[in-house]
Amino acid sequence: MASVSSYMEKIPKKAQLALAGFYLTYRMVEDLINQWLENRRSRDPRDRHAKTELVYARNLAIWEKTLGVEHPHVALGLNNMAEAYRAQGKFAEAEPLYQRALEIYKKKLGPEDPKLAMVLWNHAYLLWETKSYVEAARIGVRAMEVKAKHAR
Description:
Elements: H1 4-9, H2 13-41, H3 45-67, H4 72-87, H5 91-109, H6 114-129, H7 133-151
Helix pairs in contact: 2-3, 3-4, 4-5, 4-6, 5-6, 6-7
């Protein structure tokens, strides 16, 4: 019986990368679902967020290594990590992750992409929680402007 690697050698490199990316995405989603189920059983919210943080950190590391540090999936991973930190009250750790995610989305998808609006809104929420109300309102308005352009 032939091994998987012998089959992989016969297909083009781009197809090999696509399959590897699909497998990694599948594994990450499976891990996130398992983590979500485990978190549902946990009674302590701090424990839930800490476990989720570990899954997000591992997935982010995989995406950065396989896709490159400026890929939009990495920006999503940064946003997810920042959200996990924000939920735990680790505001100082969350802030630079939001900034990096925003830079990647602006550079790769443009300043009017709806994914950018999501990160802007999450960043505004963090700023609101840290009592930076003026900056939170400015960023929140920008997020709504981007969203409104795509609602039409």
